């Protein structure tokens, strides 16, 4: 379970402030895959990073029962001077998982070829996203935070990514941000729309998608 209690967060935007979270109180159950919808710039990725602990809210509390991934698709925590393999080895040690198994999984899944053994600073943003996705999916988490990762790569890689997400969600929950509404409809069994720092919960994913589309118009 991921619990947000009276969470508030904003940041300067020109001469005003952009409100990401306005006294939010919500629970994300471990057995649900929740679509996080909202306009571009609403703060969906920032909210994921707060849940992950990489950004602290200005006020309120975030409690997590179980383990939570970093935002899949966000590769900002990689050490640029280390190779992909060295970064994965470090991640395995931090999370206490078998190093060889994780390296083998990520090397095969990411399809980086020889780049897997080159420094991260030589990677494109797409290559970093593949590495981050493979590393997170190679570890069992109780909650996965997924941020637009399946937009990376060709159609074959996207299908492979969606298949591994399906498999992980058999035993874990997730909070997912994606512009692919078809993917959200197939994976998610609840939704929440973020607008002006407020979060509206929907048990009916199709209804949430309809509301989201109307907002975008």
UniProtKB/TrEMBL annotation:
Q: Which GO terms describe its cellular component?
A: membrane
Domain ABC transporter, residue spans: 2-216
Q: Which PROSITE patterns match?
A: ABC_TRANSPORTER_1, ABC_TRANSPORTER_2
GO MF terms on file? ABC-type transporter activity; ATP binding; ATP hydrolysis activity
Return the Gene3D superfamilies for the record.
Answer: P-loop containing nucleotide triphosphate hydrolases
Please verify whether the record's keywords include Acyltransferase. Answer: no
* Keyword entries, A-Z: ATP-binding, Nucleotide-binding, Transport
Under InterPro entries, the record lists: AAA+_ATPase, ABC_transporter-like_ATP-bd, ABC_transporter-like_CS, ABC_transpr_TagH-like, Bact_Polysacc_Export_ATP-bd, P-loop_NTPase
Does Transport show up as a keyword for this record? yes
* Family that this chain belongs to: Belongs to the ABC transporter superfamily.
Could you tell me which PANTHER family the record lists for this protein? TEICHOIC ACIDS EXPORT ATP-BINDING PROTEIN TAGH (PTHR46743:SF2)
* Entry protein name: Capsular polysaccharide transport system ATP-binding protein
What species does this protein belong to?
A: Celeribacter baekdonensis
Q: What is the lineage of its organism?
A: Bacteria, Pseudomonadati, Pseudomonadota, Alphaproteobacteria, Rhodobacterales
